[in-house]
Specification:
CATH topology of the largest domain: TIM Barrel
Order of helices and strands: HHHEEEEEEHEHEHEHHEHEHE
CATH architecture of the largest domain: Alpha-Beta Barrel
Distance between the termini: 44 Å
Radius of gyration: 22 Å
Helix content: 25-40%
Structural class: alpha/beta
Number of strands: 12
CATH superfamily of the largest domain: Aldolase class I
Shape: elongated
Number of domains: 2
Length: 355
């Protein structure tokens, strides 16, 4: 019985090294040309075959004709007044039952580049097309979950984002819950770290904190920084604000964060979206301080970024600073992150699946 012919990749980023090597050799190239090609695109950021001059001209012509670099297409891009750049990327479906989907990725340049001319941008990346967690204050879950993104679709966001300017760090805080697509995300981050050169301490993965999943994946040599979206110190309120975690005790989430620190040596950042009149009172700050007291962690306070369809609003002026000060007075490390790209709907909590 004859072996089935190797599958022809639909795009360069979709092909692993053995598949790419077979593809190139079948078209008259040399096996080492596969590594040359991946280095050009992933390490050096060359996105036109004609510019990869260390490949033979004939092979470049074949690649141009038969193997697009990307599987997705750029549908739209917008730049906010603060320089934040949002990309809308459409990825094709596979098979009759799967329709194309579009997700958003955000390139955030440094706020004050004059202070550090060598500092690059932050890239906010999506891990799913839509989100099943359905936090009521977040636009990403408005249409539910369409499907998980594949590893090469996650890598494509990095490659397209870096083309807008050098990257210093990345946050997987776009659309989706990363731990519900961890196999594909992990493969993508391996590529980003090993071939694009963005180290594990520059990669942050944000999750609502499934305790069992966190304990399973905590590696001996961690490949990223961990952020857990907490949003409230009160159990009943968290069950409402993070429906996918309803019934999971907050203490179990915090204990999983403690385990992460013990296994990896890296402190957890707890993210807290401040919703005006909802979770931003002094009492909330005091109870959060009590919950986190004695733990090796930090708190990232994010004033809510409004979305027209959702009934929440930003805290009153001065409230985020007061909330932070209550935490700091209790010995915690706490910062306020005023999101960039607000008027371009590119800020935290505003990204969404487009169908």
């Amino acid at each position: 019985m004859e072996a089935a012919p190797p599958e022809v990749p639909r795009s360069l980023l979709e092909a692993d090294l053995p598949t790419l090597r077979s593809f190139i050799v079948a078209r008259g190239g040399k096996p080492f040309h596969a590594k040359v090609l991946r280095r050009a695109v992933l390490e050096r950021g060359v996105l036109a075959y004609e510019r990869i001059t260390d490949l033979p001209a004939g092979l470049r012509a074949i690649l141009e004709e038969e193997l697009p670099i990307f599987s997705g297409r750029l549908v739209d891009e917008r730049t906010a007044a603060d320089g934040t750049h949002k990309l809308l990327i459409e990825f094709p479906g596979r098979g009759e039952s799967e329709t194309p989907i579009s997700v958003e990725t955000v390139h955030i340049p440094p706020a004050r580049p004059e202070r550090d001319p060598n500092k690059g941008a932050t890239l906010c990346v999506s891990s799913q097309a839509g989100c099943p967690v359905a936090c009521p204050f977040c636009a990403s879950g408005l249409l539910g979950l369409a499907r998980n993104l594949r590893a090469h679709e996650i890598v494509e966001q990095y490659v397209r984002g870096r083309a807008l300017g050098p990257l210093s760090r990345s946050v997987v805080m776009g659309i989706g819950e990363p731990l519900l697509n961890y196999a594909q995300l992990s493969a993508a981050l391996d590529t980003v770290r090993d071939e694009m050169g963005l180290g594990g301490r520059k990669l942050t993965v944000s999750t609502v904190g499934f305790p069992d999943r966190l304990r399973r994946l905590a590696p001996d040599k961690p490949r990223f920084q961990l952020a857990i979206s907490l949003h409230t110190p009160d159990q009943e309120q968290r069950d409402r604000l993070v429906p996918a975690m309803a019934g999971v005790p907050i203490e179990e989430v915090l204990a999983a964060g403690d385990d992460w620190f013990e296994k990896t040596g890296r402190e957890v950042t707890y993210e807290y979206v401040l919703l005006g009149g909802e979770n931003d009172s002094e009492g909330h700050a005091l109870r959060l301080r009590e919950r986190l007291s004695g733990r090796r962690c930090s708190v990232n306070l994010i004033p809510y970024n409004p979305t027209p369809e959702l009934p929440f609003y930003r805290p009153e002026s001065g409230s985020p600073e007061y909330f932070r000060d209550v935490l700091v007075d209790g010995g915690l490390t706490a910062t306020i992150r005023w999101s960039r790209g607000l008027e371009g709907a590119a800020a935290c909590g505003q990204l969404r699946l487009v169908r």
